[in-house]
Amino acid sequence: MPLELVLVRHGETEWSRDGRHTGATDVPLTEVGREQAGAVREALAGESFGRVLTSPLARAADTARLAGYGDAEPRDELREWDYGEYEGRRTAEIREERPGWTLWRDGVPGGETAAQVGARVDRLLDELRRDDGRVLAFAHGHLLRVLAARWVALEPEAGRLFALDTATVGVLGHERETAVIRLWNAPMLPRQTPSPANPRAHRT
Asked: The whole model's pTM is what?
């Protein structure tokens, strides 16, 4: 069976809800995030996977555990983008200093580049392709967007095209020999009312 990746972005945290860049900071799931993880459990009930992987960061590992995969294998390649000096900051705040700034084009001082994140996910994809089968992975928004781009042989910066909300599922598979995206940003639970700070954070 050709490799198929089922990807889950972690549930809501206070920082994801408020639109703050969350890299290495271990922000816990909110109560909504925990409920979302439970909805992922229901959605994946009856599915089988050869391997289950998770980012070692708590918000992803806890989503995996609450979704019924407490034995998921931690992988550093699935850690979120290192935002360096922009950790914990909102895009609007950064643009007050750097008008028009985007993570994908401009990067972050003291953090990772898109190419470095792409190299991380490439290493993991190379490993997984040697085994084939179905793999489930719990990780983070920007990281998974880069992974999706690399899956279909796009540059890491093309991850900007793949919006991904919290507690959503994506499926990367094949059409014959061609790597394709079969499902993306599929919600497992209706979102709360958008917050004023981040009006698109909870869109359905």
From this structure: 0.91
